[in-house]
Amino acid sequence: MQKKLVFRKKLLARLVLGSLIVTGHAAMAQSSIDLGTVQSNGGGSGNSAPNVQSAPYQAPTQGSLLATEPKSIITQQYIQQNASAGSNYTDIVNIAPAVSSMDPNGPGLMETTSLTLRGFEDGQFNVTFDGIPWGDSNDFTHHSTSYFMAQDLGGISIDRGPGNASNIGDATFGGTIAVNSKNPGTQTSFTPYATYGSYNTRLEGVEFDTGVMKNYGDLSAVIDYKQLTSDGFLTNAAMKRNNLFVKLMKPITDNTMLTFVAMNNTIHQNTTGNNGGTSLAMMQKYGYNAGLVTDPTSQSYFGYNYDNINSDMEYVDINSDQGSWTIDNKLYTYSYNHTGYQGADVGGVVQANGTSFSPTDVPGSIMYMNYRSWGDTLRATMALGQGELATGIWIDRQQNGRGLWNVDMSLGGATVANPFAGGRLMTDTLTTIQPYVQYAWKATNKLTVTPGLKYSSFARSFNAPIMPGTGGNSYYGSATYSKLLPSIDAHYMIEPNWTAYAQYAQGFLAPVMQAFQVVNVNPSTILPTETENYQLGTTWKSDKLTVSGDVYKIVSKNWMQPGPLQNGMATYMDAGNVDFSGVEGEATYYVGSGFSLYGNDALINYDIKNPAAFGGAVVGGNAYAIGNALNNVPRNTMAAGVIYNQGSIYASLMAKEIGRRVSGVNATGNAMHFGGYTITNFNTNYTLKNVGGWFHDLKVGLQVNNLFNKNAFLGSGGNDVNGNPLFYVIPDRNYELSLSLSM
Fold it and tell me: Residue 180 belongs to a domain with what CATH number?
């Protein structure tokens, strides 16, 4: 009976999504399009005031009429109305089709453990800030709690696919999450704001907008500072985060805009660390939300497990029309500096203490990872013949210093004998160069065909006196991976508010650093991952209905699949050749009287072509296999909800399902299968305009996450030293109350 019930629920949910599309057909002929939220950058409205009582304005996600591949846009107004106080981009994009994200310590209170897009894990797709690719050079992953916060975002777009030649980044073949910062306001304002919620969560901040300063050449700026503190859902897993965001914009001439952005972020947090998660035995002893403990004789003691992280990002942008050319150039830098302290076996109940100082002392480790990137993105376009020529180049160089050594936690971190057993001491560099050219040929007044070519080059080098995964061996070497990546897409305007597209593009991803972490590594045997992507889709927009859908097929070879952590070390499996395919759709229907219905659905299929060879990356002497499955790839995602937005009141009720998946391995090395789960969130805000006197706007909000208090396992984050799996669970029902006052 249970299987039949689950099937019926999924069938019903998909019928709801289908009904949104069918119901909208009756309104298509008589509804005019609202172009206010069409722009592909997801940054908000056009020049005219948006129509609030419309599907495009109220849609949580929506397609783009300009898109040449599957794209979901999340607008600034949706983020401002729905994001939790501590939210990062990973929390916000979870509503989108084919996206899944874990937040095991509460919204924004821990680095996201598994963000996937179409089943591709973080590091297999691109993330950009204002068009600048960023991430770790070692495996192209991203630190979600270390950069921009929700209060400073202007919108997010999710491209599901490698895009055309102009789409730059280390891992574009899996897609791109393009995060945009918000622009300064046009009016002078001073806005203090605060949020208080479950787990003793507090956020206090203040934003200052200068408005357009005529006496300073129309300079405008926004400065936003906020502090987030929380005890966290997991026991003794507290966080304190400070974030400063500055953005200045100044017209230099009538056709040139100068933009400067700076961000600084600091974090102190207690964390379950590299092992990731909590064992069942720990949960049985300390409760469902077991994290760290208060016993200083335990390796899971919170005083032994903490991180200090500082990060920054700055860029200067010149956007200018020079004759027939439009030029945009961003010179940027960003850094990440992390010092971490961790017990040797966090999350396990049976822990073997003992160091070279004493058989009862608590063993642990100290690590650092410090890097800085410098780079430049140059883009240029011009009208040429029957179309538009676009060309540009991205150059980035990152130097990354990494160390990890064993210590005695009982003695305040004193270095033990043979401190680098299982540790590391190294510097690696990654130099990326990606020039591109493409031409958007307007074949007819409705059809545009865009062929393009990008050259992608990754040069990686190692200076490692102690290379991790090699038993203490050194490694000094380098490797370069490069490829020409052709793409072609066709965009057809069926009607002004109805478009369709088709795309073929090749993707490319250089091998991650962990692939080199084996004894007597031979770089010539380490191959990059390559893909060929085929996609078809369509988008319709009107005041009553916004709807989009697509189908895709991805053929890959040399697929490197991230696996569960083993003894705190990242693992990767060579899955050989894997084919992906799927169907995706999203729709918002404006019912009337302020109400809209929303739904999205994504089916994710994959086929491992050579399962006999699947599994077995050896890390630290430990091999494992996960069977004929990909780790943390849900077989489907779905979302459905209702939005009310009229007058001073905004409210939303949203449910997101993550389908069944394999996550990690048990103590015997066999894959663990997890069923699907659904989380429902409720959010409401009341905004009073023109309060009077010194005050402009007053906003009060209430958010309830996990409304129905769903308890379930999210997945496995790794294994303890005895091979027992460590689990993440869904945080219980939690609340936030927020207040902001603009003056």
Answer: 2.40.170.20
